[in-house]
């Protein structure tokens, strides 16, 4: 189904086809593809071109590193252990140029991650982002230095069979995706609810 705006302009297929699965296949993701994802992230815009994003990733084949990342997840995100690759996104919290707090660092990590998601979609991959992880543990166990904070985690891979999921997750996997209507999120000129 094509998603359109009220003007019938089609949403870009990369945006339309992106979604966050919980069932991932066993297929691994090549290092070249991973590089393309992080390269896409690199080209995001950022305040003062500070590029405050950093990423730590591990493929399942690198068992020790993958287990370290999967050990950060809350129990509700255990499904992500089946993904081929896990990553943590990280923000540099102060500006390089004067050391003052970068209020847009997390915003810009989100932009970079958005690029990564679209590039993944273009490569036939899916990414499921997660806020459900232990950021303090990540900082300690991954050697994230002072001045940097873990923002989110992501699971990358090829979509798997929803039948492999437990019932509750399967229901969520197959549910219709919901979005707020446009008039609830975009206002012309001033704040206005409908
Ligand atoms: C910052 C962030 C944190 C999220 N945390 C979780 C999470 O901990 N567990 C989870 O299953 N999904 C998580 N999600 C995925 C969202 O639930 C999902 O993107 C949303 O329901 C919309 O679905 P869609 O991505 O398929 O369009 C997170 C997404 C973002 C962007």
Key features?
194 residues; alpha+beta; NADH Oxidase; four-stranded antiparallel sheet; 6 helices; 30% helix; binds flavin mononucleotide; Nitroreductase; Nitroreductase-like; oxidoreductase
Task: Give an account of the 3D structure.
With 194 residues, the protein is α+β, with helices and mostly antiparallel strands. The protein has a domain of 135 residues: NADH Oxidase (3-Layer(aba) Sandwich), CATH 3.40.109. The chain has a 4-stranded antiparallel β-sheet with strand order 1-2-4-3, sandwiched between helices. Helix 2 crosses helix 4. The two termini are 27 Å apart. 27% of the residues are buried. The model has no long low-confidence stretch (mean pLDDT 95). The structure holds flavin mononucleotide. The site of flavin mononucleotide has 9 residues, from strand 3.
Give a brief description.
By secondary structure, the chain is of the alpha+beta class. Helix content is 30%, strand content 15%.
Summarize the topology:
Elements lengths: L12 H5 L13 H12 L10 E7 L3 H8 L14 E8 L12 H18 L3 E5 L4 H7 L6 E10 L9 H8 L20
Helix pairs in contact: 2-4
The structure holds flavin mononucleotide (FMN).
The site of flavin mononucleotide has 9 residues, from strand 3.
């Amino acid at each position: 189904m094509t998603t359109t705006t009220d003007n019938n302009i089609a949403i870009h297929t990369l945006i339309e086809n992106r979604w966050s699965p919980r069932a991932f296949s066993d297929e691994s993701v090549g290092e070249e593809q991973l590089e393309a994802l992080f390269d896409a992230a690199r080209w995001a815009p950022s305040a003062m071109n500070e590029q405050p994003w950093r990423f730590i990733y591990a493929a399942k084949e690198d068992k020790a590193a993958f287990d370290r990342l999967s050990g950060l997840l809350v129990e509700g995100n255990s499904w992500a252990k089946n993904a081929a690759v896990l990553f943590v996104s990280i923000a540099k919290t102060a500006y390089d140029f004067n050391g003052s707090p970068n209020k847009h660092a997390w915003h810009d990590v989100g932009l970079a991650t958005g690029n990564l998601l679209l590039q993944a979609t273009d490569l036939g991959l899916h990414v499921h982002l997660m806020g459900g992880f232990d950021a303090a543990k990540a900082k300690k166990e991954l050697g994230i230095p002072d001045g940097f904070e873990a923002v989110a985690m992501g699971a990358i891979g090829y979509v798997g069979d929803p039948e492999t999921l437990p019932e509750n997750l399967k229901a969520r996997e197959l549910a219709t995706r919901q979005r707020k209507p446009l008039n609830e999120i975009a206002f012309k000129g001033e704040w206005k609810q409908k």
